Amino acid sequence: MKADLVLTNARVRTLVGDQVAPAVAIWRDRIVALEDVPAHRTVDLDGAVVTPGFHDAHNHMAWYGLSLSEVDLRVPSLEALYDAVAERAAEAPEGEWIVGAGYDENKLGGHPDRDALDRAAPGRKVWLKHTSGHMCLVNGPLLAELGIADAPVDVPGGLVVVDAAGRPTGLLQEQAQQLLNRLVLPYPVATLVDAIERAGRVYLSQGITSVTEAGVGGGWIGKSPVEVAAYQLARDSGRLPVRVELMVAADVLHPVPAHETDGMPLGLDLGIRTGLGDDRLRLGPVKVFSDGSLIGHTCAMTEDFADTPGERGFLQDSADALRTRIVDAHRSGWRVAAHAIGDAAIDLVLDAVDEAQRRWPRTDVRHRIEHFGVSRPDQVARAAALGVVPVPQGRFVGEIGDGMLRALGPERAGWAYRYRSLLDAGITPPGSSDRPVVDGAPLRGLHDMVNRRTDGGLPCGPEEAISGLEALTAYTLGSAYASHAERDRGTVEVGKYADLAVLSDDPATVDPASIRDIEVLSTVLAGEVVWER
Length: 533
Ligand SMILES: [Zn+2]
What we know:
Layout: E1 3-8, E2 11-13, E3 20-21, E4 24-27, E5 30-33, E6 39-44, E7 49-52, E8 54-59, H1 61-67, E9 71-72, H2 78-91, E10 98-103, H3 105-108, H4 114-120, E11 126-130, E12 135-138, H5 140-146, E13 158-162, E14 168-174, H6 181-184, H7 189-205, E15 208-216, H8 227-236, E16 243-249, E17 254-255, E18 266-267, E19 281-289, H9 319-331, E20 336-340, H10 343-359, E21 368-371, H11 377-386, E22 389-391, H12 394-399, H13 401-412, H14 420-424, H15 442-451, H16 468-482, E23 500-503, E24 520-525, E25 528-532
Parallel strand pairs: 1-6, 2-7, 8-15, 9-10, 10-11, 15-16, 16-19, 19-20, 20-21, 21-22
Antiparallel strand pairs: 1-4, 2-3, 4-5, 7-23, 11-12, 12-14, 13-14, 17-18, 23-24, 24-25
């Protein structure tokens, strides 16, 4: 019997310990040998490095795909932002909204001004999304359409920000963003399929072969109540370039009239829950938002932010409602992925998981805490003891690290987006980006996990740095573990899926300062070469 494809003259980083193999042989979609064997096709890699394909354990695929067609607000100044808005307004068809994404007031010196936006795009509705996704800024005509041009409304779990005179500034935080929903949602499935495919093609070019999409179907994160249909259609029409695990937004879970002995107080219709699907498209955890963002000062902290004394952020719902949601989802058979950035929110989630496991024990669930943004040492130990998987974002340290340092002050800098102490506690952390919140190229994430420096050049909790091999393992095997997929993916071993990235250098041995310069030469998914430079 011949293999279909052999990649030879390679340095194969198997991630089984520090083993390196000379070749990898593939038959159909699986790895069948780690040596040169007879094959229908043999490719000489000329010494290039082969690793498992990257798995981004927390990204927003449709949101990122949509943002690829929006005005790019990653600009150096407010003036440049107004120019970019004006430029799009000059060429957009009559009546079309000007939608931009990716602004960060920490880099601009402040949020955009609603009146300046009105001047930049006369008569247009302008909607600018903050890089965190936790807030947005809208201009006068949009505020008028929402009926809040001159006075705010109360939104539970959110804020319509006003100036000293009580006039809305256009900044809508957290749940207040939902005010826009009736105007923009739902996106058509066809638009979402386009976005999903566009995002997936970028992922392949960066060595990513699988992702976990961090919230579909509802809440402020959802793009349509039938968002899963978009992923299914993408898959059925050959337009889903990578393997996807979908988190379901908690907002779409509802009481289900199952038999009382089933222990399913809430779920989706038909009792569908975590695990349904296959290796290409699968339902993952339920996504519960417990708080907001660190650089936006909307995450729930036990102590004040360093740069805004008296402020500790807030929870997205009452503590009791959040706790009940987590416990009931656990009892109903869901894996829970709870967004928790501030340490007060992390306390709440750990308490809820603890209670859930005491009352309704389940084995090897791997509930997750998304971000685990600012965690005290006792919380690391407790997550390990509870079998909770923290899901930090390495690239945050670089791209928004300067804003994080200001919000946390020097004492808590080492609590931010930890890795070292997670590994030391026996936790298997995944790698992820939260794209489009920051650049999602995995090698940028690896670079920051190893170097722990902000893009401004400051060390950010250097004691939380890990080695290149550990970072690579997190972004592959760790992410597979967080998805209960480590038997099929995450290492280069006989029997596993042939999901591979071919790299110009080895993240495990290259000078740490140049990890981000490593190039992706090609990407293999299920035995097919799906991208080549
Ligand atoms: Zn996210």
